[in-house]
Amino acid sequence: MTDTSARSVIEITGEDRLHFLQGLVTNDARHLEHGPVYAALLSPQGKFIVDFFLVPQGETVLLDVASSEAEALLKRLTMYKLRSKVTLSLSERTVSRGLGDAPEGAIQDPRTADMGWRAYDGRPSQEVDWDAIRVAHCVPETGVELTPDTFILEAGFERLNGVDFKKGCYVGQEVTARMKHKTDLRKGLARVTLTGSAPVGTEITTADGKSAGVLFTQSGGHAIAYLRFDRATGPLRAGEAEIFAQATAKS
Fold this sequence. Notes:
- There is one protein chain.
- The protein is of the alpha+beta class.
- It folds into two domains: 7-91 and 130-181, Probable tRNA modification gtpase trme, domain 1 (Gyrase A, domain 2); 187-245, no CATH class.
- It is 16% helix and 31% strand.
- The chain contains four helices and 14 strands.
- It has helices at residues 17-22, 67-81, 130-137, 173-182; strands at 7-13, 37-42, 48-57, 60-66, 87-90, 96-98, 107-108, 117-119, 187-195, 203-206, 211-219, 222-228, 236-238, 241-244.
- A six-stranded antiparallel β-barrel has the order 9-12-11-10-13-14. The protein has a five-stranded antiparallel β-sheet with strand order 2-3-4-1-5, with helices on one face.
- The longest helix is centred in the first third of the chain and has 15 residues, at 67-81.
């Protein structure tokens, strides 16, 4: 599996940087005036491409992204740049992480304070079982729960402060808005309890063999799973693991 823990930083400078981001990402780039923003880039069909943190630092916006996605994202952003007065470059900055209140020079994770702080000044990271914390708070990760088949509302982006429904147009906005206002979520990520374990990506089935979802990150007898909520009402299995789920959307 791809190492999803490694992070890279893309620096975005130029007078059009906020306007440039505003037309592309799921969150409101104007919020950068007040602090960091969690957001994603979507396909025109509303499917997930990549998520990231946007962090204001003076006249620069730092884009903190999984290293496995950095080069492809830089190419995609460069394609969208056109005549915008924006400069994009892959930085040598490193990303540090830890729990508790953000120390001086660091930022609180904008998804939830339970995910700790992030810093970009070379300080050491704390040794933390991040998977355990992600499972406890149902926080998805690129390359695991977040895939090219993901719709961000099913992945909990509203709960995690990763989408703004008042900002106006961005790539994939129409599909996302329609899911928000015209449909009830019938599928999505949820925290489940389990006995045993199974590989990430194992299909979850009902007692009579119907597909009910997919099992993802596991820790301490709990896991993140993608579920069909109408089928997650009885005993479930994923390989050798027994699963109990409460069939409610985690939006």
